[in-house]
Design goal:
By secondary structure, the chain is of the alpha+beta class. It is 30% helix and 29% strand. The strands form eight sheets. The chain has a seven-stranded mixed β-sheet with strand order 11-18-17-14-13-12-19. Strands 3-2-1-4-5 form a five-stranded antiparallel β-sheet, with no helix packed on it. The protein starts with 10 loop residues before the first strand and ends with a strand.
Length: 644
């Protein structure tokens, strides 16, 4: 293999990204562009790996190239794929197209998987880039195309598992056996709020109830609102097997047809879950609010509650809309307070990024019968507004308490940086193509985005503008330092309200108790929190990828039965090889390939986000079009359309 390095070539380190074409790119802060690594210089590096590389001689006008010299850290070792047998040998053909080499599986390492079955395999050895990596099968998943097999494949491919280790299950069972019944001593150590009206409001298919709301009218005309969160930290103690497994997973995963929980079901849907008409241990944020939503007082601490009613979002909405039904008065008070909180949030510049989500109606075998838009109700916003209040005030309290003691205000915060200048410039050009002006010459604030979203409301391109604007934003992450949340326009923000399904929330509960107990910073704990924040952010990304993959799979599966049918769509992207179109009702995105557009010769005008024909016909972002489904490929998870 030729090398373009010299003895004194500078060395860089960074995270490797690999395209489906097998070309690598290294992210390094010292370079404006990612450093390119051709396939023959990857030297066994895989997507996500932390690598060391030596730079090639720079060619003027060309992207900087390099050659991988060492793998610092492997991002993953496990791969899902189809086992293929030929000439007495077995190979794993990975589902992940960024894994550019098949794994050789020795005959005694196949777990007797059959030819063509889906399996999960671990890469055991790979040091020679000229040879295939070796691996061993650790799970036989089953027949390709089976719903359970494909959903499990998605989960395993993203590094998660559906099964819990034996010691974790044993620990959870021990808690259920010995701690499910709440002792009088435990109640005596808590604020007893079982006589206060309390309700949960969740999706109809929810089984893990993290949060509940309580309400009490006060003599002075104000309201006491309690935001009660499952006290997971009471059961999952720091450093035990459950805690380590929860940290490893980072969060629950919500696929189209199932939930892969962060905690075993006995805890997530039973012991910890705020099920109705059961005494439950909670960690609460209790506020005195004026009728216009102003916070008069705040109190944080451990409580015991008993939920009077389990509302489904739609049921609570029906009571409000009909102005009749159980707990109408309480729901109307909640609604009024939530609207006041929202009004203040919007006035401060919070950006409303509500985008359309889809839901599926499945048959008993998981086959999609219907794809429909998820309706966002006032009751969804109501719950969200109170959760935002709790998250904001807990974050502020954690910082305030550290500042009082003149300590570094270390914690676990949900931070959202300002958008990147270069991405803002690209967004401005994109918006101009759709007829919207967005000034990026000045410092852009949340209110500028808020104004844009308001202007886009009702526009045919509303959802496209929101989606593209979200992509412009930096990703929200977990950090030990509070730097504020740009999108919400909050100076203080954390995640406190979902410890059943998010590990950072569990950490925040522990930190809040430390603050209430007046404990000082512990350098060792700070180092752990830094690692936990980084890992939780990464796991959240993997979980989101898994959730999107399950949605995409079901959308493609739905379209298999609609090949040849016509739909209305909106153009969502243009490239040199085709035009992306999203079907309006099901949000199923597919491509119209330029090579299939036989009525003219078309080329890409990238600056104007347009595909233009030689005879003058154009296709631009946001255009509404009529499409026919040409094909839906379950294996590649792609849909091909044509214009009609």
């Amino acid at each position: 293999m030729p090398s373009y390095m010299t003895i004194d070539s500078p060395t860089v380190t960074g995270k490797m990204s690999i395209t489906v074409k097998g070309i690598g790119y290294i992210k390094n802060p010292d370079f404006d562009q990612d450093i390119e690594v051709q396939n023959n210089f990857l030297n066994t590096a895989l997507h996500g790996d932390e690598v060391e590389a030596k730079l090639h001689a720079q060619v003027e006008g060309m992207r900087q190239n390099a050659e991988v010299t060492a793998i610092i850290h492997r991002a993953k070792a496990g791969f899902v794929g189809v086992l293929e047998k030929a000439n007495g040998m077995s190979f794993l053909v990975p589902d992940d197209k960024k894994m550019y080499m098949d794994l050789v599986i020795p005959a005694d390492m196949t777990l007797d998987a059959k030819d063509g079955e889906k399996v999960y395999a671990i890469m055991t050895h790979w040091s020679d880039p000229k040879k295939n990596p070796e691996g061993k099968v650790t799970k036989v998943l089953g027949k390709k195309g089976d719903n359970n097999v494909e959903m499990l494949s998605i989960v395993l491919e993203k590094g998660f598992d559906t099964d819990f280790p034996d010691e974790v299950v044993a620990e959870a069972n021990e808690i259920e056996k010995n701690q499910r019944a709440i002792s009088h001593e435990e109640v005596a150590n808590r604020r007893d709020m079982r006589d206060t009206f309390t309700t949960t409001i969740d999706p109809h298919d929810a089984k893990d109830f993290d949060d509940a709301l309580s309400l009490k009218e006060l003599p002075n005309g104000n309201y006491e609102v309690g935001i009660h969160i499952a006290d997971v930290s009471h059961y999952v103690r720091e450093g035990n097997a459950l805690d380590k497994e929860a940290l490893k997973r980072g969060c629950s995963i919500y696929l189209v047809d199932r939930t892969i929980p962060m905690l075993p079901h006995i805890l997530s849907t039973d012991v910890c879950s705020l099920n109705p008409n059961e005494d439950k241990l909670t960690f609460s944020a209790v506020f005195e609010l004026t009728p216009n939503g102003q916070v008069v007082t705040r109190w944080f601490g451990r409580t015991v509650i008993n939920s009077d009613k389990r509302f489904v979002y739609e049921e609570a909405q029906e009571v409000i809309d009909a102005q009749a039904g159980n707990y109408l008065k309480e729901l109307m008070i909640f609604k009024g307070l939530a609207e006041a909180l929202r009004k203040e949030k919007v006035a401060n510049g919070a950006i409303d990024f509500e985008t359309t989500e889809v839901k599926f109606k499945l048959d008993d075998n998981g086959k999609p019968l219907e794809v429909y838009k998820k309706e966002r109700l006032d009751t969804h916003r109501l719950v969200e507004d109170f959760m935002l209040l709790a998250n904001r005030e807990v974050a502020k309290y954690l910082v305030d308490e550290k500042m009082k003691k003149k300590e570094d205000p270390i914690g676990v915060f949900r931070v959202h940086p300002s958008p990147d200048k270069e991405k803002l410039g690209e967004l401005s050009i994109f918006l101009k193509a759709l007829g919207f002006e967005f000034d990026v010459k000045k410092d852009v604030t949340p209110k500028d985005f808020q104004k844009l979203i308001t202007e886009a409301n009702g526009d045919v391109n509303e959802n496209l503008i929101k989606t593209t604007t979200i992509r412009t934003m930096a990703k929200a992450i977990y950090d030990v330092h509070n730097t504020g949340h740009f999108g919400l326009a909050f100076k203080f923000y954390t995640h406190f309200t979902s410890p059943i399904r998010r590990y950072p929330d569990l950490l925040v509960h522990r930190l809040l108790q430390d603050a209430l107990d007046n404990k000082n910073n512990d350098p060792q704990k700070t180092n752990f929190l830094m690692r936990a924040c980084k890992q939780s952010t990464e796991q959240e990304i993997y979980a989101s990828d898994a959730e999107r993959s399950s949605i995409k799979y079901k959308q493609v599966e739905y379209m298999v039965d609609h090949v040849g049918q016509e739909f209305n769509g909106v153009i969502t992207g243009v490239t040199e090889w085709g035009i992306y179109v999203e079907e309006e009702e099901t949000k199923c995105e597919g491509m119209v390939k330029l090579r299939d557009m036989n009525d003219d010769f078309y080329t890409l005008d990238a600056k104007r986000y347009m595909v233009k024909g030689s005879k003058g016909k154009t296709y631009t972002l946001g255009d509404r079009v009529k499409i026919k489904v040409l094909s839906a490929d379950m294996e590649k998870k792609v849909i091909d359309y044509k214009f009609v």
